[in-house]
Write a structure and sequence with these properties.
- This protein is of the alpha/beta class and about 250 residues long.
- The chain has one domain: 3-Layer(aba) Sandwich (Rossmann fold), CATH 3.40.50.
- Helices cover about 45% and strands about 15% of the residues.
- The protein has eight helices and seven strands.
- The chain has a seven-stranded parallel beta sheet with strand order 3-2-1-4-5-6-7, with helices on both faces.
- The longest helix is centred in the middle third of the chain and has 26 residues.
- The radius of gyration is 17 Å and the shape is globular.
- The two termini are about 30 Å apart.
């Protein structure tokens, strides 16, 4: 399927590894010009090489509003504008209600909620002016089905989902779509860290019988950015091999 992304300019956050890197690679494979960010210079350079297509590496930490805004601004400068924004960030530390102090919530909200707001504030106004834009947020299945021992992520990403849904309705008439993808268990460093490297055990709990391939997830990101997905907005879509158990 021809996605119509040739020459589009994409900023993909936290793309030095994992699902962000997979999204950047998929967009570049469709002819988009891509800027990525990460916190480690060497890993970022390696990721840019893996993305190919002259991807622009930008050293940035989206864990603060200033860092998130700076990433988008630098991507706009490097690419001459941003048509596609993929928001993404690492997860906060694990923990439950009893073990997580109140003062831990601020950093988690900055990382997984305020970063999304800041990146959208920096990128979406120009998209509205051009009457074409795509925002795809990588969040988590936890916004539909909270994950045990991840109370910070559950809380912050649910807030981001509320923001994204509201934004989607405000900008739909301007040719800008806003969607989020809710990954379940994918073969990423984060999943390995949370499960002591035992992905076979994780796979046993997935109806599909395996953990997700980040490349497949990246392809779904690219589709949501395509001309074919122009009527899809305000959606929060699980990509999870059947893990999400509820009817709606």
């Amino acid at each position: 399927m021809h996605l119509g992304l040739e020459g589009r300019r994409a900023a993909v956050a936290a793309a030095s590894s994992g699902l962000g890197l997979a999204a950047a690679r998929a967009l570049a494979a469709e002819g988009a010009r891509v800027a990525i960010c990460g916190r480690d210079r060497e890993r970022l350079a390696s990721a840019a090489e893996a993305v190919g297509g002259g991807a622009h590496p930008i050293l940035a930490d989206v864990g603060s509003p200033e860092g998130a805004t700076a990433f988008v601004r630098e991507a706009q400068d490097a690419l001459g504008g941003v048509d596609i924004l993929v928001t993404n960030a690492g997860g906060p530390p694990p923990g439950g209600f009893a073990s997580t102090p109140v003062d831990a919530y601020g950093a988690a909200l900055d990382l997984n909620l305020i970063s999304v707001v800041a990146m959208c504030k920096a990128a979406v106004p120009a998209m509205r002016e051009r009457r074409w834009g795509r925002v795809v947020a990588i969040t988590s299945l936890s916004v539909r089905q909270p994950i045990g021992n991840l109370i910070l992520s559950n809380t912050a990403r649910a807030g981001a989902t509320g923001f994204l849904k509201t934004l989607a309705r405000e900008v739909a008439g301007d040719g800008v779509t806003v969607n989020s993808l809710l990954p379940g268990s994918h073969a990423t460093d984060r999943l390995r860290e949370l499960n002591d490297g035992d992905l076979d055990r994780v796979a046993a709990g997935v109806p599909a019988g395996e953990v997700g391939d980040p490349a497949d997830f990246g392809a779904f990101v690219a589709f949501l950015c395509s001309v074919h997905a122009r009527y899809v907005t305000g959606s929060a879509i699980p990509v999870d091999g059947g893990e999400y158990a509820a009817l709606l």
